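User: Good morning. I'm curious how zinc ion would be positioned relative to this chain. Could you predict the structure with it bound?
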Amino acid sequence: MRKLRCHSCGKELPKGSLKYVIEIRSFADFDGYLEEYEGDIEEGLNELLDAVESLDVKTLEEDVSKELIFILCKICRDRFISDPFQTGRTAFEGEDVKGTIH
Ligand SMILES: [Zn+2]
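Assistant: Good morning! Here's the predicted structure, ligand included:
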């Protein structure tokens, strides 16, 4: 059986040890504002449809929403939770920053 390791520091996580699952869900936000389209709307729509057709379904889905799952040890999990992108700033909590409430 493959040994489970922390995705961040690589430390081995033996069976029964304390480990955390980090699920990252990224999805396109919509703030209710649509940019005004300059030009012929029908033409623009056709262009958009052509662009969409040339993309495969997977690319299109990943553009809208993508989920990632990581397993972390406690140390890495605590570090990640307090500052996910290592910017030195505290992470936002809850629904405050979303453009829409689902
Ligand atoms: Zn770790």
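Residues 52 and 60 are 8 Å apart (CA to CA). Residues 6, 8-9, 11, 72-73, 75-76 surround zinc ion (CB under 6 Å).
Let me know if you'd like a different ligand tried.
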